[in-house]
Design a protein that fits this description.
two-stranded antiparallel sheet; about 500 residues; Heat Shock Protein 90; five-stranded mixed beta sheet; about 70% helix; alpha+beta; 11 helices
């Protein structure tokens, strides 16, 4: 049973035809390849020998020319080149020079000994030149030139003789090769015709059932799943495709039914997910409200305490100015209950705070505002971000320093980003503290009051812009001050719609 199924399979038939065709083709082409490689080896040997002789001729010329220059000018450069080319030529000559019956090899052996004699004469002429024996090296150079010409003629004669022998061998190979090509072409054509006839017969037994299967598949793709099952008596592969087609049709019907059920379940899941997202957004709003509420009591205690002290030690007029600025700042804090406010509101609140600081620290603190006025009415920013950062600088940047400290605030524009910067020239912030407060977190913020306001601002920026990695940056160095930079991308909406 297995034997019948195997012989009836498309795979077995194609493999049989393929192996037969390839086997014959490989045999024919293998024979052609062997003959071609043999011819190529003979030609390569001839060409390699010819190339070697021509290289010797070139190297002889490279020795002759520097020697002539050296004798004419006594130049050390020419002498150095002569010695180098002489050694190169010596190394190129074969050390093994066997005597054979081949006339070509004997002629080459003669050339090698002639070159040895030539090199010995070169060395002798150089020594005579160094000894200033003019007549001797002049006569020697003439003899050397005659030997140089004779060696060149012998090399050309050997090359010509070798070329003639190679040409005769090549003609014989070409005659044999043409015959092999003709016979091989005839055999390949016969093999191809035989394989093509067998393949055509097999393909005809496959094409008719596959055409019908194609029509049935077209009906199914149009949504008609009521087509009857199909059965054929063809090669095993076609029979298996027909059975698979029947199974696929049943599976698609079942799959569509399951998709309808799954769609209903996914609709319920999406509804639940929307409810969860709304709840998550509500929780984040509550967390933001909690963070914003943390700042006001701490600031309120410090400012009111300062107002009481001024009321005791100073006259009422200055205290009145202080309380007026304090009232303006409180009005801003009470008014701005939104998470995002116009830049102008943030600027006005910061200006009131600056006026209070100027009264508290008239001699020890220098405050600088560098604001691009055109931005104030165009854009918004998170509420209460500048004043807590300035407060953090005032409280901690100048504790261990004497003299006047400087805090500068700038609002600038780098399309499409608004840059809010607070910079001081204080003691700086330790690196471990910077790394800690720049880490996004969801804890309950039970840190010390030293970084409470600053961390509040940082975490709110992370909440609003979770995908903007550079939304906030702290640049600090010991005793060189600190700069805190907030970048608000005007084309990116906050993650929470408020």
């Amino acid at each position: 049973m297995n034997r019948i199924q195997f012989s009836n399979s498309l795979k077995s038939k194609l493999v049989y035809y393929l192996v037969l065709s390839l086997g014959l083709t490989v045999i024919f082409f293998g024979f052609i390849l062997i003959m071609s490689l043999t011819l190529q080896d003979v030609a390569d040997d001839r060409f390699a020998n010819e190339q070697f002789l021509q290289e010797l001729k070139v190297q002889l010329e490279e020795v002759q020319n520097p020697l002539e220059n050296y004798l004419a000018s006594f130049s050390s450069v020419s002498l150095g080149k002569l010695l180098f080319t002489t050694e190169t030529l010596k190394e190129a000559l074969p050390a093994d020079r066997p005597i054979t019956s081949n006339q070509q090899d004997l002629m080459q052996r003669e050339i090698f000994y002639l070159i040895d004699t030539y090199l010995e004469k070169v060395n002798l002429i150089v020594e005579q030149k160094r000894g200033r024996k003019v007549s001797e090296y002049t006569s020697g150079f003439e003899d050397l030139s005659t030997l140089y010409s004779y060696i060149g003629e012998r090399i050309d004669r050997i090359s010509l003789t070798g070329f003639r022998e190679q040409l005769e061998e090549y003609r014989g190979f070409l005659v044999l090769f043409r015959k092999i090509q003709i016979y091989s072409l005839l055999l390949i054509l016969l093999t191809t015709a035989f394989a093509f006839s067998l393949l055509t017969k097999t393909m005809l037994s496959i094409s008719a059932p596959m055409d019908e299967l194609s029509r049935m598949a077209g009906k199914i793709s149009g949504g008609d799943f009521q087509v009857p099952d199909v059965h054929y008596k063809s090669v095993n592969e076609v029979n298996q495709v027909a059975e698979a087609f029947n199974d696929m049709k049943s599976s698609i019907r079942h799959y569509i039914h399951e998709l309808q059920k799954q769609k209903a379940i996914e609709q319920e899941i999406m509804t639940e997910r929307v409810r969860n997202l709304k709840m998550e957004q509500l929780l984040k709003r509550m967390e933001l409200y909690t963070m914003q509420a943390q700042m006001n009591p701490h600031f309120l205690f410090n400012t009111i305490n300062t107002g009481v002290q001024l009321a005791i030690v100073e006259e009422a007029e200055k205290t009145a100015d202080f309380m007026e600025h304090l009232a303006a700042l409180f009005r801003y804090n009470i008014r701005e209950k939104k998470f995002f406010v116009p830049l102008r509101h943030e600027y006005e609140g910061l200006l009131s705070y600056f006026n209070i600081l100027k009264i508290r620290f008239p001699k020890s603190l220098n405050l600088i505002l560098d604001i691009n006025e055109s931005l104030l009415d165009q854009f918004t920013c998170p509420a209460m971000v500048l004043q807590p950062i300035v407060e953090n600088s005032v409280l901690h940047a100048f504790k261990s320093r004497e003299g006047t400290g400087t805090v500068s605030v700038s609002i600038s524009w780098e399309d499409p980003v608004i840059i809010l910067s607070v910079k001081d020239d204080g003691v700086g912030i330790p690196r471990e503290v910077v790394e800690n407060i720049l880490t996004p977190t969801n804890h309950d913020y039970q840190l010390s009051s030293k970084v409470m306001g600053l961390e509040n601002v940082i975490q709110r920026c992370y909440f609003f812009y979770p995908d903007q990695k550079d939304v906030i940056d702290i640049r600090t160095a010991p005793d060189k001050g600190t700069e805190i930079i907030i970048r608000i991308h005007t084309e990116v909406k906050p993650c929470i719609e408020l």
